[in-house]
């Protein structure tokens, strides 16, 4: 699902700080640099891995890791290499970047370190097989993406293996045929199988939250950088916003700001699969403009 939101900003964000040594630890309070460790909501540790790569580890105030990123520049603007995202100190997402674009296989893990989904990327777009799994290891959903769009046959299965959904998409990502079935193979409506997540009060309230929370990066104000940022994220079965990624952005810093705000979002009402809360992917377009 994709939504569009237009922001007009006149406020400037704080200036970023420069990398000055091979190892740097910084403390932040809701995105604002602070020297008071006891007030920090996140802690960044940055160090030089080798002659070509820098590592940035983001932790919470208890030093429990949240994210590990690999960059090819000391300014930490070009993601290159392994990316790890953590939940409760355990790896929840693993993948790789090349020049700020997702590549290869990206894998999501549950709290027991079991794989619950795999996706293939090329040049930051979903390309190839996408598969999700039930807790017992059985396939829950499978299908193929080409250039970020669903194509061909997609299927969803009940935990016991029966087919629940069949959808066929043409080369323009248009749904041309579908069938939705109960465990006995009888036709049912799609809502009985899938329900999208929602923000408390509706999507307009979510837009209001974004409008109050986003800080236009100072470098983008200085350079008059404007345009549309496309963000993709998962609403977890508990309602949390996770795995926020930039699909497209006019600048690296605008994308980072979008990620920051979404990761701080209040909890959503989770979506449902087979009448149970489920992790569901969501997409939003944000148009940044300056007046």
From TrEMBL:
| Membrane-spanning intervals of the chain | none
Quote the Gene3D superfamilies the UniProt record gives: 3.30.1150.10, 3.90.930.1
Q: Which UniProt keywords apply?
A: Signal
The family database entries (PROSITE patterns) matched by this protein are listed as:
TONB_CTD
Q: Which residues form the signal peptide?
A: 1-18
Q: Residue limits of the TonB C-terminal domain?
A: 201-291
Per its UniProt entry, which superkingdom is the organism in?
Bacteria
Q: Which PANTHER family match?
A: PROTEIN TONB, PROTEIN TONB-RELATED
* Identification of the protein by name: Energy transducer TonB
Specify the species: Pedobacter fastidiosus
């Amino acid at each position: 699902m994709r939504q569009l939101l237009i922001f007009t900003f006149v406020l400037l964000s704080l200036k970023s700080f420069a990398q000055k040594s091979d190892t740097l630890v910084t403390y932040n309070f809701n995105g604002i640099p602070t020297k008071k460790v006891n007030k920090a909501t996140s802690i960044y540790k940055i160090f030089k891995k080798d002659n070509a790569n820098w590592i940035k580890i983001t932790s919470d105030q208890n030093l429990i890791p949240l994210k590990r990123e690999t960059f090819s520049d000391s300014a930490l603007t070009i993601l290159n290499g392994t990316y790890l995202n953590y939940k409760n100190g355990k790896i929840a997402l693993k993948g790789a970047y090349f020049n700020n674009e997702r590549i290869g296989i990206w894998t999501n893990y549950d709290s027991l370190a079991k794989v619950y989904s795999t996706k293939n990327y090329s040049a930051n777009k979903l390309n190839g097989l996408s598969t999700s799994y039930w807790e017992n290891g059985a396939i829950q959903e499978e299908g193929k993406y080409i250039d970020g769009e669903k194509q061909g046959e997609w299927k969803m299965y009940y935990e016991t293996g029966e087919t629940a959904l069949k959808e066929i998409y043409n080369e323009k990502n248009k749904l041309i045929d579908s069938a939705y079935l109960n465990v006995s193979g009888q036709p049912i409506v799609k809502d009985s199988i899938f329900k999208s997540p929602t923000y408390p009060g509706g999507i307009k309230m979510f837009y209001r939250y974004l409008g109050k929370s986003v800080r236009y990066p100072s470098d983008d104000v200085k350079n008059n950088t404007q345009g549309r940022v496309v963000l993709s994220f998962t609403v977890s079965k508990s309602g949390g916003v996770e795995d926020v990624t930039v699909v497209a952005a006019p600048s690296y810093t605008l994308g980072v700001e979008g990620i920051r705000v979404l990761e701080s979002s209040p909890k959503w009402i989770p979506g449902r699969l087979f009448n149970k809360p489920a992790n569901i992917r969501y997409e939003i377009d944000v148009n940044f403009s300056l007046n």
